[in-house]
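TASK: fixed-backbone design
INPUT:
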C-alpha cells in the first residue's frame, strides 16, 4: 500500500523539476533568450509550478531575456514596459536601452533616460552611446562629453548611419 502511494506522489513531480535549480535556471535562460515570444513564454513557465515561477522571477533570468517582443508592445504597452523594467533592473543591457528611449522620447524624463542609456553604454551598447551623444549635444555643459561619445572608435568601427541605426533598433 505504501509503495502505491509513493508512486502517485512521485508522478506529480515532473522529471524536469527534479533537476537542480541552477541547471533549470540555465535551461530557462537559454530558452527565453532565443525565444521570439519571451514574454508569453515566461508567463507560461511561471504558471507551471512554484519552482519555475521562482526561477523565472529571478534577476539572473531577467538579465538575459530578449526584450524585442514587439507584438506585446503593440497589444499591451504598459505590460510590455513592466516586463522591460524588470529586465532593466536585472541589468539587461537591451532592456536598459529600450527603457532609456521610452523615458526620453515618450515620457520626457531625461534624468531617468540618461541613467538607463548610461548603463547600456557602459556595457558596450553602441546605439545607446549614439543616442546619449546626440541628446547631450544640446546641452552646453555636456557638449564636449557628447562629442567624445560620438567620436569613439566603437561608433566609427560600426559605421553607425541613420539606416544602420534603424535596423539595429528594429
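OUTPUT:
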Amino acid at each position: 500500500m505504501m509503495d502505491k502511494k509513493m508512486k502517485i506522489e512521485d508522478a506529480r513531480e515532473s522529471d524536469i523539476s527534479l533537476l537542480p535549480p541552477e541547471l533549470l535556471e540555465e535551461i530557462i535562460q537559454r530558452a527565453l533568450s532565443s525565444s521570439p515570444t519571451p514574454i508569453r513564454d515566461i508567463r507560461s513557465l511561471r504558471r507551471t509550478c512554484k519552482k519555475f515561477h521562482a526561477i523565472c522571477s529571478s534577476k539572473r533570468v531577467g538579465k538575459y531575456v530578449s526584450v524585442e517582443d514587439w507584438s506585446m508592445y503593440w497589444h499591451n504597452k504598459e505590460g510590455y514596459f513592466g516586463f522591460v523594467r524588470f529586465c532593466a533592473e536585472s541589468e539587461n543591457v537591451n532592456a536598459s536601452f529600450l527603457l532609456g528611449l521610452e523615458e526620453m522620447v515618450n515620457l520626457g524624463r531625461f534624468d531617468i533616460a540618461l541613467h538607463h542609456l548610461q548603463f547600456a553604454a557602459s556595457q558596450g551598447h553602441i546605439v545607446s552611446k549614439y543616442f546619449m551623444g546626440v541628446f547631450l549635444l544640446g546641452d552646453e555643459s555636456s557638449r564636449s562629453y557628447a562629442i567624445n561619445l560620438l567620436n569613439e572608435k566603437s561608433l566609427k568601427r560600426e559605421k553607425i548611419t541613420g539606416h544602420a541605426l534603424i535596423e539595429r533598433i528594429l
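COMMENT: The two ends are 61 Å apart (CA to CA).
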